[in-house]
Amino acid sequence: MYTYHSLKELFDLADKAECSPGIIACRAEAEESGKSCEEVWNRMKKTIPVFRNAIRQGLSDTGKSASGLVGGDASRLYHGKMRFLSPICQRAASYALATAESNAKMHRVVACPTAGACGILPAVIAAVSEEENSGEEDITRALFTAGAVGRIVAEKASIAGAVGGCQAECGTACGMAAAAAVDLIGGTTEEMGHAFALAVKNILGLVCDPVGGLVEVPCVKRNAFHAVHALTSVEMVMSGIRSVIPPDEVIEALNDVGRRLPVELRETSLAGLAMTATGRRINKRLEECARKV
User: Fold this and answer.
1) CB atoms inside a 10 Å sphere around CB 187
2) Is 70 contained in some domain?
3) Counting C-beta atoms within 10 Å of the first and last residue's C-beta, which end of the chain has fewer, N or C?
């Protein structure tokens, strides 16, 4: 049996089997679904061209979304001259923006774990795999690792902004991306856990305050920031830095903080950036446009 309900259980299973947590996740999915590991594996592999296409569309389609709030920024960042970001961080941030912009324009994306945070994991996976020249099998394995991590967060806390704020969406995606990136470069389960912990604990308390109720402002740009954030946590861990708070306890804190957030800061657009003067003007414009349709 490949049952796990915590990161410790997942990593212990992987260490015992001397394999990646992604392999354990694939086997667990096969057990639960009654399908073969090969079927489950190939289904995950099919997400790779989907998220790569979303990146391409986001970079090439520089028009605005229907709301007029986002669009074209991914291309600007991708082609811009960086002063401080490394090439891989530039690509990761650009890819995350591109994916989130694709989502805003109703292109097909991989919600991992949600549409609002859809750019973070694909961007990190794409940028790191390009840097490491990783093949599709390696990427698929890392995606399973990310999925296993996200599944545990969903079980023990939440991946929904309406329940736990954006810390539950961008935070979880960032942690998933950090763990997956460590897997992709051949890191240990211990390093995956600490990368997850470092990534998530520094996003605790992030509110979900979409302007006009749309997953565009500030959501799209948050994807870019947190893709780089995930890479930062990976660099720290691979340099020997460790999280003082264990990863499973970080998930407990994520749940606790999310439950304590006022309902106004949980995707209701009743506070935060959504209720700034500009946010209210945008919301009014969108409501007027909706009435005319």
Assistant:
1) 18
2) yes
3) C
- pLDDT confidence tier of residue 65, bands split at 50, 70 and 90: very high
Does residue 2 lie in a domain region?
no
Residue 71 lies in a domain: yes
pLDDT tens digits along 166-216: 999 999 999 999 999 999 999 999 999 999 999 999 999 999 999 999 999
Number of domains in the chain: 1
| Residues 144-158 pLDDT 10s | 999 999 999 999 999
Domain containing 280 equals: 7-292
